[in-house]
Design goal:
The chain is α+β, with helices and mostly antiparallel strands. It has three domains: 314 residues, no CATH class; 111 residues, no CATH class; 58 residues, Arc Repressor Mutant, subunit A (Orthogonal Bundle), CATH 1.10.10.410. It is built from 17 helices and 14 strands. A nine-stranded mixed beta sheet has the order 2-5-6-9-1-10-11-12-13. β12 and β13 form a beta hairpin. α9 runs parallel beside α10. Bound molecules: zinc ion. Zinc ion (ZN) binds next to loops.
Length: 505
């Protein structure tokens, strides 16, 4: 067994990697039939003759799928092919009822792109995109009993709800020259794809639900001697690790494969070209099957479907819908909002960026918008086990509450109660204020009456104040706040107490 470390492996070998990302599109219906494209339905309820491949059924391409794929291709800087045929990729597996997958082979709709990936320290790496093609997903097998794999299972179940869910598969060119930052670049690339599809609202990008899945291939080649050109050294044999389904797992799988392959090479043993399985529990990959070549799939043009032929003017109109690159948008917003790196990172990690932006657009300052979403509302979401955008409050409502604070109508404590009322479905902030009677009492005569009552109840405190112990007024402020259910302006109450006691404030 090799005792190599990751660092020592990278001193001797240069890693080259590529990533295939499968993006499940969030169209209302599947790619070639009218079945609902919905995660989490009861098994085999979103199915029809087309998506379970009954003889004689005819697929028809969902135009919305083509639109989403073209938009994604444009966001990845790809050229859009004028005409691309679908192809049948033939293989047998129980989750593939037709015994072939409809995909694109030699004519991907999107090809030849590049994507800038911004690392945490701001360094930019440009990743070449070979292609982004349209295909259908397969169903899902569940192996029951044993360790969850097919070996040792008591029986297996198959759910065809996912069969025919639209996918775009994005394939990079080999990514070279990343050296010790290899795992970081791989992670940042997938995170960037995820951010783009979410910003474009063409997929929910949820890796934990499989709506964004990554296969990572990696090879090592000896480092070039000083003064020699690394790119002249041929690539080594690569492994392809399938279904690495979290950003953290991408980094871990790359670490593991680099150490494993370097150990083999050091021992003079070959690295086999093969697919490998990722094991989240052990952090290891294990050998799958030897990598099949394209000819094993007997690709041929799909005879039942028209080619995809997006109109050039339509493609140009879609180009106008491509959002700003997520990393560049973050940098721009951070500058506009004057957030520190830490504040910005917290906002991004909390998924609060768009909510903060919308709250600012509705009139709040950046600091107050951040305070609400990362404070009170983040705690509420956390307690409820939901995400921020799952809370029953809109950015405009948060901005409305903050506006009342700024106008002196609410203090922080009252504002939190208004937010609580909105979250509980009691209506707009102004309605909650009216229904719960939450407005600050700024009417002096009401405050004076409350102060007089509190002073009369605690004559000893009045004496202390008058004898110069002004800080004793705190007890009276507290009593007044209690009597007004927190709705008094504490500063004004203090002034009135001192006036009543005949002490100069
Ligand atoms: Zn169907």
């Amino acid at each position: 067994m090799s005792t190599l470390t990751y660092e020592s492996a990278l001193e001797k070998y240069d890693p080259v990697f590529g990533i295939e990302v499968h993006v499940e599109l969030n169209t209302a219906t599947k790619i070639f039939c009218g079945c609902a494209n919905q995660f989490g339905s009861a098994p085999n309820t979103n199915v029809c003759p087309v998506c379970i491949g009954l003889p004689g059924s005819m697929p028809v391409t969902n135009e919305k799928v083509v639109e989403s794929a073209v938009r994604l291709g444009l966001a990845l800087g790809c050229s859009i092919r004028e005409s691309s045929r679908f192809a049948r990729k033939n293989y047998f597996y129980p989750d593939l009822a037709k015994d072939y997958q409809i995909s694109q082979y030699d004519e991907p709709t999107c090809y030849d792109g590049e994507l800038e990936v911004v690392l945490d320290d701001g360094e930019v790496v440009t990743v070449g995109i070979e292609r982004a093609h349209i295909e259908e997903d397969a169903g899902k097998n569940t192996h029951v009993g044993g360790s969850g794999g097919i070996q040792g299972a008591d029986y297996s179940l198959v759910d065809y709800n996912r069969a025919g869910v639209p996918l775009v598969e994005i394939v990079t060119r080999p990514i070279e020259g990343t050296a010790e930052r290899v795992a970081e670049v791989a992670r940042a690339y997938v995170a960037t794809i995820r951010d783009i599809v979410k910003a474009m609202d063409i997929s929910d990008g949820r890796m934990e639900q499989g709506s964004l899945r990554a296969d990572v291939n990696l090879s090592l080649r000896p480092k070039a001697a000083d003064g020699e050109d690394q790119s002249a050294v041929p690539f080594g044999k690569r492994s392809e690790t399938k279904n690495v389904n979290s950003l953290r797992a991408i980094e871990r799988a790359i670490h593991f494969e680099i150490v494993r392959q370097a150990g083999l090479l050091d021992a003079g043993q070959p690295v086999h070209q093969e697919t490998r399985h990722w094991h989240e529990d052990t952090g290891e990959t294990t050998s799958g099957r030897s990598k099949e070549e394209a000819e094993d799939y007997r690709y041929f043009p799909e005879p039942d479907l028209l080619p995809v032929e997006p109109d050039a003017a339509w493609v140009e109109s879609l180009r106008g819908t491509i959002p700003e690159h997520p990393a560049k948008r973050r940098a721009r917003l951070q500058e506009e909002w004057a957030f520190s790196d830490l504040e910005m990172r917290d906002a991004v990690n909390a998924g609060a960026l768009d909510l903060i932006a919308a709250t600012i657009a509705a009139g709040a300052t950046p600091a107050s918008a951040r305070k609400w979403w990362l404070g009170e509302l983040a705690r509420t979401a956390n307690d409820a086990g939901t995400s921020l955008d799952g809370l029953a409050i809109a950015p405009a409502q948060v901005a409305a509450v903050q506006a009342m604070v700024d106008e002196g109508k609410l203090n922080d404590k009252l504002a939190r109660q208004v937010i609580e009322g909105v979250l509980a479905g009691e209506g707009e902030p102004s309605e909650v204020v009216a229904a719960r009677g939450l407005e600050i009492v700024s009417d002096d005569s009401a405050l004076e009456a409350a102060v007089d009552e509190a002073l009369a109840a605690q004559p000893d405190v009045l004496e202390k104040i008058q004898s110069g112990k002004v800080q004793a007024a705190g007890a009276i402020v507290g009593a007044v706040m209690k009597a007004t259910r927190g709705q008094a302006d504490a500063g004004r109450v203090r002034e009135i107490i001192l006036q009543r006691a005949g002490v100069n404030p």
